[in-house]
Amino acid sequence: MATVKSQTQSATVGQQQLVDALGVMAFAVMAALNKLASENELSLTQLRMLGILRDRQLKISELAYALGLDRSSVSGLVDRTEQKGLIQKQPDPLDGRSVLVTVSRKGAHAAERGAAETARLLAPMTDALNRVETQRLTVLLERMLQHRWLPPEQTQQR
To answer: What is the pTM of this model?
Structure first.
């Protein structure tokens, strides 16, 4: 019985160490993204929106879900970002009541520059890993991200 308890405690300690490391990494990434957003006169949420839309077009409701915001907040965000020329809206051909949001040509160029600048800002950390470590960490993070919208009780079953 002591073995099961020590394994559970060890798993809990290991999980807490992972959560702590992810938190510190999130803060480092957020600092880089805040710097990038500020330098480009964008809010962090506008920057996130460009990142989300860089390879897809979404309805406002889908964009709201992806950003974790309510639809009315996103409508205003979309309008402000459209005024900057970074995104464009068009009627949804399948649903006349909906609007599709996509990056504009200017927004696509901004997103490309932003991705390159983000890579540059994060290079001191990412360059610490070799090719195999980079690939392994990418696979693990992508697996974790597949579960990001699931309630905890569903992720424990997997």
So the answer is: 0.76
